[in-house]
């Protein structure tokens, strides 16, 4: 029976992606994904910081969109969340570069949470199509308000379903990328630890063999002397 290799758990697992985005290595793809998220979080932190320091610059647009003025408490909470997401993304990039899989788990959990929130939002949007149509039509910042107003309910529902499925599929794909990178890095760490262990075992065996002489040398080194004669008291 052929012995099972350590890498068989990952190499033989069809659920683990070796490449992502058609041609990119999954580890490199995870790093690129982290940098893309990092740019988005940096932009969010900059905008939220500016909203806290100069709220008058955003009051008019915020009132036109939401019908209220921005509150500093809400902006502070949003800034704290954006900063935490920024740190989690930095951990992802650091873990992928240094091949430490444990640093990928916070970002993976954040991805799963974001997917669940978007799934609930998609279900809510599909369930309340008339309210969604009214909200999009009356939103001055939405460029397709007139086109939405001309759609019937069935067409609008199909459009919302297609858009929601597309967004959720993209998010699920990137979740799979990060999870595949995590499993590959775990396998890499296990192989490293096993190689180090086998190296130490072989080193100890060689040292033991060097300390103990072989049989021929032991016989040569032993003087050929007869035992003392037997004497009776």
UniProtKB/TrEMBL annotation:
Subcellular location: Endomembrane system
Similarity comment: family membership: Belongs to the LAPTM4/LAPTM5 transporter family.
Protein name in UniProt: Lysosomal-associated transmembrane protein 4A
Major subcellular location class: membrane
Topology versus the membrane: Multi-pass membrane protein
Stored InterPro entries: LAPTM4/5 (IPR004687), LAPTM_transporter (IPR051115)
Keyword annotations: Membrane, Transmembrane, Transmembrane helix, Transport
High-level lineage: Eukaryota, Metazoa, Cnidaria, Anthozoa, Hexacorallia
Transmembrane domains' residue ranges: 31-53, 77-97, 104-129, 156-182
Pfam families xrefs: Mtp
